[in-house]
Amino acid sequence: MQTADRLNKIPPYLFMTLRNKINEAKSRGIDVISLAIGDPVESTPQSIIDALCKAAQDPANHPYPTDEEWGMLAFREAVARWYQRRYNVTLDASKEIVALIGSKEGCHHFALGVINPGDTVLVTDPGYPGYKPSIWFVGAEPHAVPMKSEDDFLPNFEDIPTDVAKKASAFFLNYPNNPTGAVATPEFLNKLVEFAKSNDIVVCYDNPYSEVVFGVDRLSFLGTPGAKDVGVELNSLSKPYNMTGWRIGMASGNEDIIKAIATSKANTDSGIFNAVQYAGIEALDNCDDHIVTMLETYGRRRASIIETLRGLGWTYDPPKGAFYLWVPAPKGYTSAEFCDYMLEECAVVLAPGAGYGVNGEGFVRFSLTVSDERLEEALTRMRDKLTPFTF
Ligand SMILES: Cc1ncc(COP(=O)(O)O)c(C=O)c1O
Predict the structure, then answer these.
(1) According to the model, what pLDDT value does residue 14 have?
(2) Which of 69, 114, 130, 356 could be stapled to 126 by a disulfide with Cβ–Cβ 3.0 to 4.6 Å?
């Protein structure tokens, strides 16, 4: 059977590989604890579930979704209120916002709406594995921009060769960062706008962890002067409101790009179930308290992991964002070898840094999205079974 050549470019999805490892160990009767995957284990706040149920009872919500290619105006207005309240960013709901089936979907429609075949598109390395397939699918080529620990895992624009910067048409990046947990600063975002303007590059600023920050201010790219001239921000209800399975998010910013994304969506899907959009309105308007609790939960888990790592010899400056800890592998181990060692010794699964790009080698990623009990069990195993490492 013929399948498209473009699929040959796509490496096995990292998390499929991890899931296979977990299932294989479980089939051997091992009690595996996964700290590899970033998917909240707490349930969605009750008022959001109630809003869904109420809207689902109303037959008016059963046909194709309202304003299908843009999302319900009422949802987009809630997005505008949320950005105003939480980020001091003003958006016009009628033309600067489009609803998404999650931020991952948004990356794909950004590529379809903005990038041409043959284009060069910048992505960070290490980086979220979701961007490259979207770039390949539209016949363009990704170009890796290294992120180094000495630069706080922020791309150094001066290191991007001038010819690459000149020919690139777009740049995908995300802070608070998956996988490194690094956060952007207002100075960095100013430089990003400057870089995009001077090289005529469209920015796809993917910000699904915008609410997950520790001890620093949350930031929207759209709060940077000139940001709307050069790009859009993707955001999502998945991570802040424990709604990964609900599939709802938003793209906001430059109205031409938003229109391009909406056009691509109009010719692909038929929008998001109205009842899910009503639930999204409840999340955006009424769940600020939940964010406080969510940050306490992840803050507590983060502190426990850091304490255990320090006890095992890591001298480690933790990142300030996202629900990940990006930790150097001990001396003598590649990232994959250290993950295998952790699985063998402790039955704990970590994500190997090399799965996020060549510059991810030498690191492993711990995720905070596991229950307190299971995390404590994983850390107890590490303290009991491992002897301190050298670095
Ligand atoms: C950087 C980044 N972008 C996008 C996504 C996908 O998020 P969503 O559930 O909104 O599609 C993830 C999920 O892990 C992510 O880490």
Answers:
(1) 72
(2) 356
